[in-house]
Amino acid sequence: MTDAKASLASERSAGVLELLRLFTDDATAADHYAAACLDKANAAEPFLKAFEYLPRDIARRPGPLSGIPVAIKDIIATSDMPTTNGSPIYRDAVPAADAWVVERLRQLGATIFGKTVSTEFAWRHPGPTVNPWNPRHTPGGSSSGSAAAVAAGIVPLALGSQTLGSVIRPAAFNGVVGFKPSFGAIPRTGVHPLSPSLDHVGFFARRVDDVALALSLLGGASDSDPHGRSVPAFDVSIEHGLTPLEKPRLAVVRFTRWSRAEPEQQQVLEAASAKLRDAGAILQELELADLDQANWATINTILASEAAVIFERLVERYPERTSDHLKSLVQAGKVHGATDYLAAKATQERLRSAFASEISGFDAVLTLPAFGEAPEGLSYTGDAEYCAPWTLLGVPAISLPAGFGGKRLPLGLQVVGAYRQDHRTLRVAKWIEGVLQFDPGVPGM
User: Fold this and answer.
1) Number of domains forming the structure of the chain
2) Which residues contact 354 (CB under 8 A, 6 or more apart)?
3) Which position among 10, 87, 118, 142 bears the catalytic label?
4) How far apart are CA 425 and CA 416, in angstroms?
5) Confidence class of residue 1 from pLDDT cuts 50, 70 and 90?
6) Are 179 and 218 in contact (CB under 8 A)?
7) Helix H segments across 89-167?
8) Does 142 sit behind a cis peptide bond, omega within 30 degrees of 0 on the bond before it?
9) Which of 330, 392, 394, 429 is deepest in the core (most CB within 10 A)?
10) How much is the average pLDDT of 360-374?
11) Residue 401, domain member (yes or no)
């Protein structure tokens, strides 16, 4: 019976809370579940290519997350597995210590289930991972492998990172829940930096409750991360999950780029808005004109300037082992002077302050996570313009699966909250998830 329960949970791609309830009733089910996940990963890997490294040790450990396999994006250090950063420079490098978040996962009893493919240093040069819904399409980036591994039902939880749109966009492209907490909510010690003013650690899972549980257990602060600032603590009931925030007041933000969104993606937002209104939510259009106009130039100036400092020596030392994407990023950063960078940082702070006032009276923002379905081909991981504003502001953002496009690839919605109001944002997202009742299922690979 134990083996059958675990196999069924794996086949249905059970969520974290459902698994924890199963393991409480039948502890040995966790062992069978981990073995089933590893079998599934080995079977899928020849064509999915989501992993750089699969685990050798899947033994269960005690703790609140005992028996839960968690895949780790390969820019996040693991002391018992290589951390390649998506680069041939680090192909066989095994860090001396775990990243803060990995160490915390181990303390909680989670099973560190391998390293997932990242674009090179979490920038634009893609790895080999394909979209599990259609291998001719990108899974998005830079957290390509983590999103694909959750979508394919290999693991119930995976770590990613976001500096522009690297959690929200691949979550939408793969039909899973992606959550970028408030800036600084999870220490980035041991996570390879791309732009320290913008880098966030985030999660992929199948349900809002699961990413909420992850933040409730993994949020914290560390003296080694100067940007770290814990969000207010909250608990998630294993039995019942979050309490939804009923009938929220939502600001619908389209931005001027709305006209570029694919018709099916526009329709998903319109249909969802109608359902939410019918269920009692209050929806009101909100323009955010200053953020709309200034965010893209501002975030790219900050990112390129900081990345140039981090990677300039690396591309000079290893010109044959670094991509044109990374070289171009360094060059763009070197073009910006100190006054450009400082002006961009000042704009970031101004926009953050303004947003706090603009969202006052609303429970969350409802917007798009991407322009539409995942682009065809693997060379381009998609446009991050619908994610960048919220990354620049450092506010919590969550992508929810909400439909399919004309090519039968997933489409999503994005819910955004006020800075450090992660719990409230997740409660709004839980209510929206419950109203929409949309489950894309697991792609038939």
Assistant:
1) 1
2) 290, 291
3) 142
4) 7
5) very low
6) no
7) 100-107, 144-151
8) yes
9) 429
10) 98
11) yes
| 296-335 burial code (b ≥16 CB/10 A, e <16) | bebbbbbbbbbbbebbeebbeeeeeebbeebbebbebbee
Using N-to-C axis directions, what is the helix angle for 29-48 and 144-151, rounded to 10°? Answer: 120
Q: Which residue is catalytic, options 73, 115, 180, 430?
A: 73
**Strands of 282-285's sheet, edge to edge?**
51-53, 111-116, 69-73, 157-162, 200-205, 177-180, 397-404, 410-416, 364-367, 249-252, 282-285
3-state secondary structure of 277: helix
Decide if 340 contacts 404 (C-beta within 8 A): no
Considering the domain boundaries, does residue 54 fall inside one?
Answer: yes
Asked if 62 and 164 count as a contact pair (C-beta separation under 8 A), the reply is no
Is the CB of residue 334 less than 8 Å from the CB of residue 183?
A: no
166, 216, 323, 399: the catalytic one is 166
What is d(CA 99, CA 113) in angstroms, rounded to the nearest whole number? 15
83 in any annotated domain: yes
Dist. CA 323–CA 334, nearest whole Å: 17
Helical pair 338-358 and 289-317, crossing angle rounded to 10 deg: 140
Instruction: Read off the CATH number of the domain in which 101 is found.
Output: 3.90.1300.10
- 379 included as an active-site residue: no
Residue 5 bears catalytic tag? no
Beta-ladder partners of 200: 162
- Residues 12/441, Cβ–Cβ less than 8 Å: no
First to last CA, the chain: 27
Q: 205: domain range? A: 2-286+358-436
Amino acid (one-letter) located at 59: A
Name the CA radius of gyration of the chain, rounded. Answer: 20
Does the pTM surpass 0.90? The reply is yes
Domain membership flag for residue 20 = yes
**120-136 per-position pLDDT tens digit:** 999 999 999 999 999 99
> What's the pLDDT band for 13 if we cut at 50, 70, 90?
confident
Q: From residue 213, how far is each of 25, 97, 230 by CA, in Å?
A: 19, 25, 15
For residue 27, what pLDDT band results from cuts at 50, 70 and 90? confident
3-state class of 281 per DSSP?
Answer: coil
* Cβ atoms 207, 437 nearer than 8 A: no
Answer whether residue 199 shows pLDDT above 90. Answer: yes
